Amino acid sequence: MRGSKILITGATGQVATPVALALAEENEVWGIARFTDPAARERLEKAGVRCHAVNMAAGDFAGLPSDFDYVINMAVAKSGRWDKDLAANAESAGLLMAHCRGAKAFLHCSSGAVYDPPDSEPRTERTVHGDNHKSLLPTYSISKIAGEVVVATMARALNVPATIARLNVPYGDNGGWPLLHLDLILAGIPIPVPPGGPAVYNPIHEDDIIAMIPKLLEVASVPVTTVNWGGDQFVSIQQWCTYLGSLVGREPAFEDSDEALRANPLDVTKMHELIGTTTVDWHDGLRRMAATFHPDLINSG
Ligand SMILES: NC(=O)c1ccc[n+]([C@@H]2O[C@H](COP(=O)([O-])OP(=O)(O)OC[C@H]3O[C@@H](n4cnc5c(N)ncnc54)[C@H](OP(=O)(O)O)[C@@H]3O)[C@@H](O)[C@H]2O)c1
Question: Which amino acid residue places its CA nearest to atom 34 of ligand 1?
């Protein structure tokens, strides 16, 4: 993407920061968040991202330009307050679409957390929805489901082409869930896992996330396009923790917990058809992540 005016919400977040930095190289990128971390704002501004403070829970976009070519909605509120999180994750997505109704495409980042079938089979886009993340984040799954419905409705009402992409375990040189696991391993703390065997996911590296964004925007449509968004490789928490442990010379301990999130593998057939495959092998991506955060322990080569 070159020469476009792009709005990224939640620009200081784990997933959005590398996206904003990459897109800012050749586009006019605006980032919104509350900017609770001034250092995160400064990092974006140094790279040329124009930062504008907005509280998505209030849904007031006054003062923010509206003439964006593309909008990438990556903000997410996890306060546990139903009023705030539904407002930020669902209602505001619709208000933002109304504010930017001239956009060529609106990409709404959702989550595999919308699925909650009784089994551990790979989830297609039609798999049973439910309150999958209830044990850890009480408002998360339901507000993500609500956000999808708002985006789908507003795409039709306003004729704004939109894509809903259900992301699964994003990670990379800006962190992610596997980094939390690595830090538990280094601290000698057991990693909570759901009882009953390997907890399988499709981790996706930030390089693949960045590479796929233009394609996700290209397939935006009315009615909305909904697609799973994860790495091509199925990897369990147990596998990635064992590998991370081998990099730092520690054997991870696992602890069965009913509170731990269940396996959530995604069927990425539709993703392959629409936007292609991912490229970063999970061993390589995790090694790079570990070397970024613990250069003293791991040789980046
Ligand atoms: N990380 C994962 O493992 C994962 C997995 C699946 C899907 N996803 C999805 O990926 C997207 C990005 O997630 P992430 O993990 O990168 O998020 P994150 O690191 O928690 O960052 C959230 C971003 O949203 C902003 N934000 C939070 N509350 C806000 C509010 N009320 N108003 C405006 N901005 C607000 C935060 O900045 P301030 O706090 O400064 O406002 C921050 O920039 C989300 O849609 C998430 O559901 C993430």
Answer: 33
